[in-house]
Amino acid sequence: MSTYALHHRRLGTQVGLVLLLPLCLALGLAVTVVRDAAAHHHDTVVTERRAYVALAATAVTRGLENERGALALAGGKVTDQVGQRRLETDRAVGKFREDAEPGAADAALAPRLDRARTALDGLDRARAADLGRSGDLPTAVSAYHEAIEALGALAFAPGTGPAPRAVDTARAVRALAAGTAALSAQRALIDAAPDTAALSAKDTAFLARQDGQRHYAAREFRAAADARSASGQDATAIDDGCLAAPLARAAEGKRPARAEWGTCATRVLDRMHEVSASLQEQSLHAAATARARAWEALLAHVALVACAVLVSAGVAAFVARRLVRRLQRLRRAALKAQHELPALVARVSRAPDPGGLALDVTPVDLGATDEVGDVTRAFDAVVREAVTQTCRQVVLRAVVHERLAAMSLRSHVLVHEQLDLLGRLQMAEGDPDALDAFFRLDHLANRMRRHGENMLLLTGAAPGRAHPRAEPLVDVLRAAASEVDEYTRAAVHQPVPAVTVPADDVSALTHLLAEVIDNAVRFSPPERPVEVSAELLPGRGLVVRVRDEGSGIPRERLDALNVLLQGAPSADWMESEQIGLHVIGRLAAHLGARVCLDSSWRGTTVVVHLPAGRSATAPAEPPLE
User: Fold this and answer.
1) What is the pTM of this model?
2) SS3 for 526?
3) Distance between terminal CA atoms of the chain?
4) Residue 246 — very low, low, confident or very high, per pLDDT cuts 50/70/90?
5) How far, CA to CA in Å, does 522 sit from each of 516, 518, 554?
């Protein structure tokens, strides 16, 4: 399985990843909400900018119309009145250029702004047109028309997705802009016409065309105007009745009376400009209000989303941290139990009275009633039960050892009585065949005694035999070989160091070597002997080697067997198949000796190293034959 799987990660990482997914989804939804609020705020900003630009454009348009009207009245001459009008127009143009700077334009308004700027850049050419009382008056009047038309196209236009009321207001403002442009052109032509009774056919056609545009604008204005965007009087402002008679005369080719016409046209134009300004002011106010509300809504959305995310993340982090910390405490308790339970088991095993031993098993109390608390209490119950069962097992083993020791001791006494009886029978018997049978019985009884002593050793008792005196090493080697079933295969190599074994160690060393030789005989070919040799190392003690010619032992198993030879705990021999090695380890510990195995393809060698002091150099004595 891949090591990058989630369950290979730390618990904090897993919980963090689980919480990260819903948090990311919440953040995605929050970003969508904030983005929509930001888009709405941007739309209101665009609407407000367009309203500012429309107001500035309307002011320039009115200035141009007034300038053209003054120039027409002056007969094309630049009088003080004309100069004053041009100064007002230039100030309006400057304000327009400031409000309509490139950074304030959105993508939809930019082309119309560029057209208006280009038209205003050519204003000097329009001002140079001949509005005198001779020449082509329609062409001269139309010189200002390009700039006025371009500025009229900038009439208030709301941003994307506006309300119906804003759309109607925009239609009304555009209709007023078209109407003022047409009526201003009519006023300029009539004011500039010569003081004659008739107008030229070209002049009459121009006036008719402009009148048609004004009437169309009037219909558009009436369709768009309502009680909220314009009052009832505003709805009729674009078509004042005073214009009818003068324009009827103009349609017949007669020039209207200058005073009557000028007063009426100026009043209507002023009224139309007032209504347009009022509507645009309302639109600007509505756009500013909408922009402020959109900004407040955006801030509210951002604050709400931030608070929701922070609270959610905080609560999730708090819950996750508490959960992870509790699980980490449980993990530490489990790891602590993993290290302390073996030590506790060993202490219980070594205790003389395990039943009365005070066991300090500290419970893991997380103070929770949820699933983690249930796991904690179950873990405590498992630990307590493990310790309880360990104590019971130790007590049971102690009882078993005690019973086995008692039974082994009884068998040991019976075997000793049997050996004494066989010894007396051998001394009284003269028949060679009977003596041979008694010898085999004696040999069998000695092996039974050794196995009984093995049980005593494994149950923790001391070696059962005691020897009355020190013996030469060669006799100890032969005695050990004689306790083996196939004792004839055990060959003691000469010379054997002339050393004696203390009386207290004779029985234990004989027993140890007998177990080693018996093991070598059983695990070597039947036709091959087992070699027993001894070597005295000056200042380092005595070394006895038992070598067989078996198939050898693998290195891994050899290491495990050497561990057993160092002396295993009393609880291990009952679960082991190598009981003989446990016996050897116990005897080696009693003698203070060190036993190890060495194996190769030629066989296995058991090395028994007795430290200095466990043997002594003695005068040469004739060995026992």
Assistant:
1) 0.49
2) coil
3) 70
4) confident
5) 10, 6, 18
